Amino acid sequence: MITEFFERLFVNNSRGSREDVKRRLKLVLAHDRSTLNASTLEKMRKEILIVVSKYVELDTESLEFSIRTDSRMTALIANLPIRRILHLEDNI
Amino acid sequence: MTRVIVITSGKGGVGKTTTTANLGMSLAQLGYQTALVDADIGLRNLDLLLGLENRVIYTALEVLSGECRLDQALIRDKRQPGLILLPAAQNRNKDSITSDQMKYLISLMEEQYDYILIDCPAGIETGFHNAIGPAREAIVVTTPEIAAVRDADRVIGLLEANGIQKINLLVNRLRPEMVKSNDMMSVADVKEILAIPLIGVIPEDECVIISTNRGEPLVLEKKLSLPGIAFENTAYRLDGQQVDFIDFDSYSKGPLKRLRNFFLGSSTT
Description:
The complex is a heterodimer of chains A (92) and B (269). Chain A has 92 residues and is an alpha+beta fold. Chain A is built from three helices and four strands. In chain B, 40% of the residues lie in helices and 16% in strands. Chain B has helices at 16-29, 46-49, 60-65, 70-73, 99-109, 126-132, 146-161, 176-180, 187-194, 206-214, 226-238, 255-264, and strands spanning 3-8, 34-38, 75-76, 83-86, 115-119, 137-142, 166-174, 198-203. Classes of the chains: A alpha+beta (92), B alpha/beta (269).
């Protein structure tokens, strides 16, 4: 009880911005840390397309390839419409 | 084996040069031959903070161009003979030197010094990359503010990507009162976010400005101020000694604050 009395006398009970700044920082750093730079992304895209094209023919016009991040995770999203599946003999 | 340490931050104005000057002076006081290299070409300040600005004749650039020998450019501090400064050129810019040239300069100095501290410029461009090239260790300086911590995080990533694994954290300009009233991140908050080992905590204090006004590093004072003690402790830790971090609450001024600490306890870090 005495502690509460002194707390009211001395402690500034405004919510304080410390929790705000920690929250904002953690969010912004999660994003900063996970961003792949553009040239790495492009190299990755080309290599992935080469591998996939060994097995299927892709519709290159409607390809989607991107990075998406939220506060917890980064995901590489690729949407590769298939025109036709190549038979194994085609690859020899 | 010489320890080549870069003092860096990303953000400008957080205290890299102050740290380099005071850490360097402390290390020299401990008996180590310590060389301070100002890598902030065009915006040099290490000479000012050490009060050696009137003794700058040659800089690193003249050494590289062959206009003078290395020993002609080095300035030995008369107050502490173990401390030496290699100043940066003021009338050029960061593109006046290459990364290889920087490494060459440090290699010229390595055998004679126990410690070489490189004062890194702000930013993450050429100047930054030139400064970290020769380094084997780093001290990242930050303040407990959002922009400084964000920049420090980026810099830590770049240091690791450049093969520097021994990275330590120094939190500067701490205001224990503001931490107590939840208006500033604590040292623990910053350390948790950046996730590197802590080597020093320096409180905000007017005497830092006074020391730069006079060109006298804090650690030279006969009766050390709180930041002076904190810098000295940082040097001891760098040297491998175990030193407890200062409990800033017990230094609160005024009887009212002492009363408050007595009843409510203290918890800053």
